[in-house]
């Protein structure tokens, strides 16, 4: 069969790999025989340090039965584009751009400079931004998969931090599930409305949070207050106060630390449900006894009122060891976005905010589930989007 090469258009001078995107034996639309008409070309630039420049010879033809035009596609291609757009970035290259922007916090200008200086690959800031926006679209099904998954978790750890969209105040929410899977969402409000949209007001399980009152609307939820927040507040009061005023916050510290030590002992001794329940009731009562007493010091009085108000929500980790005593999971999940916010302030547009939530959710979930993030993102750009949850150890090792 004769092959006719098309004229090269701005292709790189050096080609490291030449790959064929062959036509199928039969038309996928009707099953008819396929005849090749001509060859087309596409060039793709890939990392590592020395760029791998691939030339794809794209076999083009048509179906003899239905006359539909057909083009071959190689598994490493990230686009069908040819002609003026025949020079493309590879899947791993685009994955690196997303990672550098959303995980490392680099601006698009710095990403362009990094690729130029480290790899000799020309990427404009605008092209970098387009890659990230494209990732938001490609990874949307994976984001929806995480959103669907959190509805089935028995425990969620929520937290939020300030954000900006187009210069206006907003909030970035994070919710971490039992296995570390993380979902982010950006909303103009701090309230739990956005979480309610994802899991429904009737969601039943347990939450460990920082005491933000909006989470209390979930009435079917077992609420665990973050013990570390109370400990930090108590330590601050100990450092600030003089004389007898130090006594109350120190008593709180001793009580909470004692409960945490007991939790660890319960785990070692495989304590039964009855023993755990009695310990929970004992600590709740001890906290009530401690906080119901009148306080002369106003700061201690406010702290005591807060502790007493949530007396039943400080020691649930004694009943169920699977309930975290702190909201550290969510605080850790917010660390990277917070660093990024300090570098470039937030997102310029609503679409950028949606992309931020989608890509950050996938990156964080990959990390927590030991999934090769570059492989996952690279495959997604190459048209193969895997599952974040229905995976085998072999999948994670790819």
Task: Summarize this structure as a short list of keywords or feature phrases.
disordered N terminus; single chain; 5-stranded mixed sheet; 10 strands; alpha/beta; 398 residues
3D structure, described in words:
Among the domains are: 17-88, no CATH class; 156-319, no CATH class. The protein is 45% helix and 18% strand. The chain has 14 helices and ten strands. Strands 1, 2, 3, 4 and 5 form a five-stranded mixed β-sheet that branches. A five-stranded mixed β-sheet has the order 8-7-6-9-10. α4 crosses α12, α6 packs antiparallel against α7 (247-269) and α6 (227-240) runs antiparallel to α9.
The helix tally amounts to 14
Q: What Rg do the Cα atoms give? A: 28 Å
Mean pLDDT figure: 92
Total count of strands: 10
Principal-axes shape call:
elongated
**Main sheet properties:** 5 strands, mixed
Helix-strand topology string: EEEEEHHHHEEEHEEHHHHHHHHH
What is the structure about, briefly put?
This protein is of the alpha/beta class. Helices cover 45% and strands 18% of the residues.
List the helices and strands and how they pair.
Elements (H helix, E strand, L loop, with lengths): L16 E5 L12 E13 L5 E12 L5 E3 L15 E3 L1 H12 L5 H12 L5 H14 L1 H11 L4 E11 L2 E9 L5 E6 L5 H7 L6 E4 L12 E4 L1 H14 L6 H23 L3 H19 L6 H12 L6 H4 L8 H17 L5 H19 L4 H9 L11 H5 L1
Parallel strand pairs: 1-3, 2-5, 6-9, 9-10
Antiparallel strand pairs: 2-3, 3-4, 6-7, 7-8
């Amino acid at each position: 069969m004769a092959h006719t090469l098309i004229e090269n258009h701005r292709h790189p001078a050096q080609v490291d790999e030449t790959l064929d995107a062959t036509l199928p034996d039969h038309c996928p639309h009707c099953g008819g025989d396929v005849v090749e008409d001509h060859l087309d070309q596409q060039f793709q630039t890939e990392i590592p340090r020395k760029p791998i420049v691939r030339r794809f010879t794209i076999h083009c033809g048509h179906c003899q039965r239905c006359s539909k035009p057909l083009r071959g596609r190689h598994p490493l291609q990230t686009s069908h584009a040819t002609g003026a757009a025949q020079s493309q970035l590879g899947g791993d290259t685009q994955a690196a751009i997303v990672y550098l922007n959303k995980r490392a916090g680099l601006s698009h200008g710095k990403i362009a400079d990094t690729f130029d200086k480290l790899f000799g690959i020309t990427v404009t800031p605008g092209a970098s931004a387009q890659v990230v926006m494209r990732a938001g679209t490609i990874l949307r099904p994976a984001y929806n998969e995480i959103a669907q998954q959190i509805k089935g978790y028995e425990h969620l750890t929520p937290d939020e931090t300030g954000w900006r969209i187009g210069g206006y105040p907003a909030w970035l929410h994070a919710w971490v599930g039992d296995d570390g899977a993380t979902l982010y969402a950006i909303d103009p409000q701090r309230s739990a409305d956005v979480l309610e949209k994802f899991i429904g007001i009737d969601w039943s399980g347990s939450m460990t949070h920082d005491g933000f009152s909006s989470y209390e609307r979930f009435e079917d939820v077992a609420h665990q207050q973050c013990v570390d927040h109370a400990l930090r507040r108590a330590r601050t009061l100990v450092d600030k106060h003089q004389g007898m005023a130090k006594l109350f916050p120190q008593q709180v510290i001793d009580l909470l630390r004692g409960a945490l030590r007991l939790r660890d002992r319960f785990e070692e001794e495989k304590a039964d449900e009855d023993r755990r329940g009695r310990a929970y009731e004992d600590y709740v009562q001890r906290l009530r006894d401690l906080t119901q007493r009148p306080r002369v010091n106003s700061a201690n009085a406010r702290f005591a009122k807060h502790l007493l108000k949530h007396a039943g929500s400080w020691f649930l980790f004694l009943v169920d060891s699977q309930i975290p005593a702190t909201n550290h999971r969510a605080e850790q999940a917010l660390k990277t976005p917070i660093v990024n916010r300090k570098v470039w302030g937030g997102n310029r547009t609503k679409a950028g905010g949606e992309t931020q939530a989608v890509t950050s959710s996938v990156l964080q979930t990959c990390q927590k589930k030991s999934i090769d993030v570059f492989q996952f993102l690279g495959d997604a750009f190459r048209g193969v989007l895997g599952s974040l949850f229905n995976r085998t150890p072999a999948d994670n090792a790819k």
